[in-house]
Design goal:
- With about 130 residues, the protein is mainly α.
- The protein has one domain: Cytochrome Bc1 Complex, Chain D, domain 2.
Length: about 130
């Protein structure tokens, strides 16, 4: 009985720590659309890569707290007017669907802070001009 409780406790601890790890959250909830690498074959992309997104976010919101607030708001309530991507990206990929039902605000805040610190990668070079 005691071994079972220890195993259950360890399993629950592992699950909870994995679910609060921002990279793991990104991998579980975001990477299906927003790849983490610099794309080689852009033809198979279903949404802009996170490198490009974060390049635009950091240009528009260089301070982390403002960027995180923008990401949380946009991911939960995306609109064309709020978008900071180039207009041709929305024309190509469409507007991101709201993720309110897929990620909690707390998880999203954790992910937003992590992607702000990690992306764009040092070797990323954007393509095109900003619309602003």
């Amino acid at each position: 009985m005691k071994k079972s409780l220890i195993l259950i406790s360890l399993s629950l601890t592992t699950f909870l720590s994995a679910s609060t790890n921002p990279e793991q959250l990104f991998d579980n909830k975001c990477v299906i659309c927003h790849i983490k690498t610099i794309p080689i074959d852009r033809g198979n992309m279903v949404a802009p890569a996170i490198n490009g997104i974060m390049r635009h976010v950091k240009i528009s919101f260089p301070k982390k707290d403002k960027a995180v607030a923008f990401i949380i708001d946009y991911v939960q309530n995306p609109t064309k007017e709020k978008s900071i991507c180039m207009p041709q990206k929305i024309a190509h990929f469409g507007l991101m669907p709201s993720q309110k039902e897929n990620i909690t605000k707390e998880e999203l805040e954790s992910v937003a802070k992590w992607i702000f610190d990690k992306y764009p990668s040092a070797n990323f070079r954007g393509r095109g001009m900003m619309r602003r």
